[in-house]
Design goal:
Layout: E1 9-13, H1 18-33, E2 37-42, E3 58-61, H2 68-74, H3 76-101, E4 108-112, H4 118-124, E5 129-133, H5 137-151, H6 158-164, H7 166-169, H8 197-208, E6 215-218, H9 222-236, E7 240-242, H10 262-268, E8 275-279, H11 288-300, E9 305-308, H12 321-330, E10 331-334, H13 339-344, E11 348-353, H14 357-365, E12 370-372, H15 377-389, E13 393-395, H16 402-413, H17 416-436, H18 441-455
Helix pairs in contact: 2-3, 3-4, 3-8, 5-8, 5-9, 11-12, 11-16, 16-17
The chain binds uridine-5'-diphosphate.
Residues 18-19, 22, 255, 279, 281-283, 308, 336-337, 339-340, 356-359, 362 line the site of uridine-5'-diphosphate (UDP).
Amino acid sequence: MENKQAKRRIVLVPVPAQGHVTPFMQLGQALSSKGFSITVAQGQFNCVSPPQGFPGFQFVTIPESLPESELKRLGMVEFAIKHNKTNEASFKNCIAQLLLQHGNDISCIIYDESMYSCEAAAREFNIPSVIFTTTSATNHASRCVFSKLNAERFFSDIEGALNHSLMAYHPELKEKVVENLYPLRYKHLLPSGLGPLEPLLELRREVVNKRTASAFIINTSSCLESSSLSWLQQELRIPVYSLGPLHITALASSSLLKQDRSCLEWLNKQKPRSVIYISLGSMAHMETKEVLEMAWGLSNSNQPFLWVTPNGDDGIELFSEELSKMVSERGYIVKWAPQTEVLAHPAVGGFWSHCGWNSTLESIAEGVPMICRPFHGEQKFNAMYIESVWSVGIQLEGEVERGQVERAVKRLIVDEEGACMRERALVLKEKVKASVRAGGSSYNALDELVKYLKTG
Ligand code: UDP
């Protein structure tokens, strides 16, 4: 990197979605505490609006980015592809303006792995670039393996493989573990729950292509995913910095929605470790039938519950009088909660989660065991780790049914099995906290990244 000593500005480019914006703002805070100036380049929606606890940060809007209505129309995958196409020229203009404004003082562009079109601006202006993946190391590794196999035409009829099961085509692979990535098996690699296949394959090809990026950042800790991290280190052949969980050291919240803090007062009135907290993240949507079954199961469990429903009532208005009465006696419903504070509250005994990576890290960092209800591939890997590798949760599979919900809540909050999971969760909590403290692996990785950004 040329004239690095003088260059101190980092441009961060997140994907405009809560689960991506949050870790980017946490990374910004970490780098700012090490003396860098931060510019956040964002699209026109799901923007972090200053001032929001980020003193000194510059926020710029990438002009002509796609409107939010396109996300609703196209779905996540096709939106990401189109967003990158429109973003390329627009982002180049944005960087040109920033270079003028800051007298060429841009040390590096750190972009979300799904904002791969940023690389064109980095190349054009000869600015080093670094990729940040906001998902788990295991998820990124699985995409690399899948894309390689796909490029080698391994899945010769992938639609067929998806429709009629991979095993029919490659029966020898049924339970085979992917080399050096235990417990990932070949059957886990096929994408699920993300819509049409062709756009997904295109997006994956782009996301795993590291182009000219010179390093890779992951929001994870080596105490959580050491085998996947070693695998990536070998495979990517550029430095991999695992700095997480970043939220532990972040001071400001980057919630895009207004958090309803009244639930903390409600929690104050509940018994220690008695409450099940339910949140399925910012994107997931449940069918009305499932919402009803869940409400019955939660009420029948006799445990108090705090339930986040960001998309409005999600069928709650369809509750019968009897169910509404039970829910209001035992439960508390909010549209958006201060999640990290909720998980840290002594009344919370378990977390029913869709297993988004941020939620997974936040739960681990508070030692809260989980009920896992993942919707698609990445979340399924996280659920697999929660249940089978770290042994701090249980998975709920198949259709949601009230009896199964009631049993799962009791297993987690009331039974001996749940107490054992909680003990393991507390041990894991101490390990991840130690990794971000002075001398820990994530703490050291941040120092190494800083050195790298300053001196190359
Ligand atoms: N979150 C929150 N309040 C809520 C629910 C979620 O602040 O009521 C935050 C949560 O703390 C996490 C993020 O939203 O940081 C969700 O990210 P995740 O990766 O878990 O899921 P996604 O929304 O990307 O599917």
